[in-house]
Amino acid sequence: MNSRLSETQALDLFLNAPLQELCNKANAEKEARHGKYVYWVNNRQINYTNICVLHCKFCSFSKIKKDSPNAYDWSHETILEKAAQAVAHGAQELHIVGGLHPDHPFSYYVEMLRKLRTAFPAVNLKAFTAVELCHFAKLSGRALSDIIAELKAAGLDALPGGGAEILVQSVRDEICGAKETGEEWLEAHRAAHQAGIHTNATMLMGHIEKPEDRIRHMAMLRDLQDETHGFFAFIPLVFHPEHNSLGRIITQKMSTEDILRTVAVSRLFLDNFPHIKAYWIQMGMDTALRALHCGASDMDGTIVEEKITHAAGANTDVGMSPERMKTLILQEGLVPLERNAKYETEETFHR
Ligand code: V47
Ligand code: SF4
């Protein structure tokens, strides 16, 4: 029986294994789980506001003041219009996240989901990061479990994996000290899993964190997954340095090799995660396609309108057509498999 990798072994692979050998090993692991399939989703991101009470050092998206130039806060009508366009183009998932708005009551978010669910009964609503959920709990004085139950009743299907950054508290304190702690982020995901809501987990890398911090971050996720089995995908996020204060000290973008090594080690170390996602918006398309041969089994989706990474200097497109997604996967000698936010695939995702 294969025993799982220890943190020391994972770190050693990350630092010392020849790249091709490491990728081949991770690819074999990916193929044992998913064969030649690569999952993708026809989705749309809806970043409903950029007004945020926090100012994480890596964030170029948020505006602290409601009257700052370029601050916005979409009405429910605008959100419904954007959703309607997406659903008309076959969207299976709406990925809804925003800044931590100072004023909206919790009922505002419940209503947002309820209106979307009523108008579009079949689309999956993957909404609100753990950090947003903690903000709603604080604003309303209610328990996280209550918040999640009410959002679920309004139509919530899954949680996105944002806000994890680096869960190791010493690093987190440096880059986003005012945000929920790593333990609080994990606690929110535990609560979602206990309520029957699956979630994803991100890791923001390529700034001040050390390889040891990346492995510890993954170990914290692996431990929670052992307990709940509620995570679908691990998503390594590539720090973009433009227009944020962290970018004044970290000007160098991550190398392709560093990204691929992290993808490969995550596939081998996170033996209880179904998927590793190659988020092409941040990796760049060429690297994301290479990651499909280094352990990644998911390309996220068509996205349509990406704001968070593009505010920080991303030069990828903000979205792509389903046809292009399928063609790109096929050109890699792999097989595209359309999914929804719950990883149900073409045959089964129609409610
Ligand atoms: O939480 C913010 C990160 C995240 C920057 O769950 C930055 O399916 C890079 O979580 N450079 C949002 N990253 C994106 C996200 C996500 C994306 C795709 C799929 C899923 C999913 C989740 O972006 C934030 C933060 O960690 N971020 N600023 C930056 N300058
Ligand atoms: Fe606000 Fe999220 Fe940006 Fe932090 S990363 S400042 S919580 S929008």
Name some characteristics of this structure:
single chain, 351 residues, alpha/beta, three-stranded parallel beta sheet, 42% helix, binds iron/sulfur cluster
Small-molecule binders: ligand V47, iron/sulfur cluster
Give me the secondary-structure category: alpha/beta
Number of strands: 10
Name the overall outline: globular
For the sheet with most strands, the description reads:
4 strands, parallel
Summarize the structure.
By secondary structure, the protein is of the alpha/beta class. Helix content is 42%, strand content 14%. Ligand V47 is lined by residues 58-60, 129, 160-163, 165, 200, 202, 204, 235, 237, 239-240, 244, 279, 282, 300, 308-309, 312.
Question: How are the SSEs ordered, and which strands pair?
Answer:
Elements: H1 7-16, H2 19-34, E1 37-41, E2 43-47, H3 76-88, E3 93-97, H4 106-119, E4 124-127, H5 130-140, H6 144-154, E5 158-159, H7 169-176, H8 182-194, E6 198-205, H9 211-228, E7 231-238, H10 256-269, E8 275-276, H11 280-283, H12 285-291, E9 298-301, H13 322-331, E10 335-339
